[in-house]
Write a structure and sequence with these properties.
Blueprint lengths: L1 E5 L2 E5 L1 E8 L2 E8 L5 H15 L7 E8 L8 E8 L5 E7 L2 H17 L1
Parallel strand pairs: 4-5
Antiparallel strand pairs: 1-2, 3-4, 5-6, 6-7
C-alpha cells in the first residue's frame, strides 16, 4: 500500500502483485488501485493462452492492470509485456471493462506477431 498526496488530498493506492508459471512462462500480474479477483486472474490466463497459440517461444508475461480516473468509460488500463527471444513485445489498452481491455491488448500483441 502506498500513500499519495495530490492537491492536499490523501489517496491510498493499493498495489498487489502475484507471480506464477503457466506452461513454463513466468507470469507477473500486478494490480494498482484494487485487488485482483480469481475471475480476473482467469481472464488474464485465458488471454495469455490465446496469445500463446500464435507464438510458442514466450518466456515471460508481465501484466499490469490499473483502475484509475473517474470516467467509467475508460478507467481500466491493461499493459502487457511479453518476453520473447529478441525484442520484447508491448501492448496497452484502456476500456470500461477488464475483459474488453484484456482482449484489445492481446489483439494488439497478436498483430505484432504477424507484422
Amino acid at each position: 500500500m502506498r500513500l499519495a498526496i495530490l492537491g492536499g488530498i490523501f489517496f491510498i493506492l493499493t498495489f498487489c502483485s502475484m507471480q506464477y508459471n503457466i506452461d513454463n512462462i513466468k507470469v507477473d500480474l500486478q494490480t494498482v488501485g484494487f485487488s485482483e479477483s480469481p475471475a480476473l486472474v482467469d481472464q488474464v490466463e485465458s488471454e495469455l493462452h490465446r496469445v500463446m497459440r500464435f507464438r510458442q517461444d514466450i518466456v515471460a508475461a508481465d501484466v499490469y492492470l490499473r483502475e484509475e480516473g473517474t470516467n467509467p468509460e475508460n478507467n481500466k488500463t491493461v499493459r502487457w509485456r511479453l518476453g520473447i527471444p529478441g525484442k520484447d513485445l508491448f501492448a496497452e489498452s484502456a476500456g470500461a471493462s477488464w475483459p474488453a481491455s484484456l482482449r484489445d491488448a492481446s489483439e494488439k500483441l497478436r498483430r505484432q506477431f504477424v507484422d
